[in-house]
Structures are given as structure tokens and as C-alpha cells.
TrEMBL record:
Any coiled-coil regions, as ranges: none
Protein name per the record: Signal transduction histidine kinase 5TM receptor LytS transmembrane region domain-containing protein
Main subcellular location of this protein, as a coarse class: membrane
Matches recorded under InterPro entries: Sig_transdc_His_kinase_LytS_TM (IPR011620)
Keywords of this entry: Cell membrane, Membrane, Transmembrane, Transmembrane helix
Topological type in the membrane: Multi-pass membrane protein
Pfam families with a match to the protein in the record: 5TM-5TMR_LYT
Length: 242
């Protein structure tokens, strides 16, 4: 029961950046990614990483199991790419070294597998649409599960390891899906605002032309009168009289 509670706590911690990211987009409705937006998400990913390692699913003298690599992946994909990934990896290793134990070396082995996989997937991830990103996320979670099985699998803790792998897959897919949904909603809102602006600009010349129509009528009447043949005959008669 305690193990299940810790798993749910880890999932809630992973969803922290999604919650604040939704607040940011709701207030600004900004879909275009800026340096400031990436910096904010990198900061949120760092907090998520530290919280995941501070409240692990299972811990003893030599081992601490949590969702730290899910936070690392989200920070890389949405927080700025390679630079964010390197900073988060340094924080991860230093914080794991602070706790001590032989589990630090297994964490270092996992980093050797996970970090290149995230870096290789990042250029393709940012070029994909929502469907492509979800497919790529499924592939990454499959690779993460395989690496966990190869590095941390123990027959004595088969059920716990299986629960952790399933939690990693669910947390990763749900988090990416929620972020993509928020981005899609923000994009639709921005497109609706632009369409409304274009509509206003398209309708604005009509009242302006109506305002200029009345002053232009006397000029039009005078010009038509000037080109009248009777008026021209009178002018010629005046010049003959002179």
C-alpha cells in the first residue's frame, strides 16, 4: 500500500510543470515558444527532478527508485534542449551522490543510456506535430522500460519493478499528452485572435468610406456641372462678349 501511495505521489510531482505551464498559457495565450518560456519550463523541470528524488518510490541504503528520468526527458523536450539536459543531468548526479550508496553507480549507468537517447530524439521531437510526438513518446518509453529491465531488474522485487515501469510509461505519456493539448489549445486561441483582428481590419474601410461619401458629393456635382454643355456655351459666350 505504501508503495502504491509513493507511485501516485511521483505521478503528481511529474504533473507539477504541466499545472504551472497551463497557468502560464492561460494567462498569456502564447503559443510561440520564447527563451523566457523555455527558461520557466526548465526551472519547473528542475524543481520536479529534485522533488522526485527527494520523495522516492522506494529507498534503502544503496537504492532509490523514482521518476527522475521522466522529469529529465520533459525538461529536455520542452525546456530548451541540450543545454537544459546537461544542467539537469549534473543536478541529478550531484543530488544522487549526496544521498550516497552504491545506487549512484547504477544511476550513472542509466544516464549513459538515457541521455544519448533523449538527445538523439530531441531534434526529431521538435519537428513533429502532436501525433508524431505521441508516437515518438511511445518509442522512448519502450526504450526506457527496456533499459530499466536491463539495469535494475531483480527477481526478488519483480512486482515492484513492473509497477515502476508501468508508472514510468503512464506518467510520460500522460504528461506529454497534456502538454501537447495545452499547446494546441493555446495555438487555436491565438489563431482565433488573429482571425478576429483580420475581420476587424476587413470591415473597417466600410464606415470610413461612408464618412467620406457626403463631403465628396458637392465636388462630384460641381465637376459634373462643369462638364455640362450648357455651361460650356455660357463660358464661350462670355469670352466672345469680352
Amino acid at each position: 500500500m505504501e508503495h502504491t501511495k509513493n507511485l501516485l505521489l511521483q505521478v503528481m510531482i511529474i504533473l507539477i510543470p504541466v499545472f504551472f505551464y497551463s497557468m502560464y498559457l492561460t494567462n498569456r495565450h502564447q503559443f510561440i515558444e520564447t527563451k523566457r518560456q523555455k527558461l520557466i519550463f526548465s526551472f519547473l523541470a528542475t524543481i520536479t527532478l529534485v522533488l522526485c528524488m527527494s520523495f522516492p518510490i522506494y529507498s534503502d541504503i544503496n537504492e532509490r527508485n523514482d521518476l527522475r528520468f521522466v522529469a529529465l526527458m520533459i525538461g529536455i523536450f520542452y525546456g530548451g534542449g541540450y543545454a537544459t539536459g546537461i544542467v539537469l543531468t549534473i543536478i541529478l548526479l550531484l543530488y544522487r551522490w549526496y544521498f550516497g550508496g552504491a545506487g549512484f553507480y547504477s544511476t550513472a549507468y542509466e544516464v549513459l543510456f538515457f541521455l544519448p537517447m533523449f538527445f538523439l530524439a530531441y531534434p526529431r521531437f521538435i519537428q513533429q506535430d502532436r501525433a508524431g510526438r505521441m508516437k515518438l513518446t511511445w518509442m522512448i518509453t519502450s526504450g526506457m522500460s527496456l533499459i530499466y529491465i536491463l539495469v535494475d531488474f531483480k527477481m526478488d522485487f519483480f512486482n515492484q519493478t513492473l509497477q515502476e515501469i508501468l508508472t514510468i510509461c503512464v506518467a510520460t505519456i500522460v504528461t506529454v499528452s497534456l502538454i501537447e493539448t495545452l499547446r494546441e489549445n493555446a495555438q487555436l486561441h491565438m489563431e482565433a485572435q488573429q482571425a478576429e483582428k483580420y475581420k476587424i481590419l476587413g470591415e473597417s474601410p466600410v464606415p470610413l468610406l461612408m464618412k467620406f461619401e457626403i463631403p465628396c458629393r458637392p465636388i462630384e456635382d460641381f465637376s459634373s456641372y462643369f462638364y455640362n454643355r450648357q455651361f460650356q456655351r455660357r463660358i464661350k459666350g462670355m469670352f466672345k462678349f469680352v
